[in-house]
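Table 4 source record.
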Amino acid sequence: MTAQRACSASELEQDAPLRVELDGVPMAIVRDSNDEIHAIGDVCTHGEISLSEGFVEGETLECWAHGSRFSLRTGVPQNLPAYEPVPVYVVTIDGDDVLIDPTVTKEV
């Protein structure tokens, strides 16, 4: 599969996650405070909660329900109750388009 357009970079607000779904794969796309764009799995591994409804803190995305924070770079939870990572997807920027291949995750 090839990368698909997930959204435009200009519609991403800093520290405000955006939920997208590509080929049935839910993702949270985040422009962090360093202006970097990340894409991680949108489902918290602790409680099946949408991470895109959570809070960005530095380079983490916090689940609003139970407080687990996931690294935007690695998907690894930074605290309990979650202990399983979420997938992190490769993001490519082409002009104003944010492109993601939902079948390719970053190696961490």
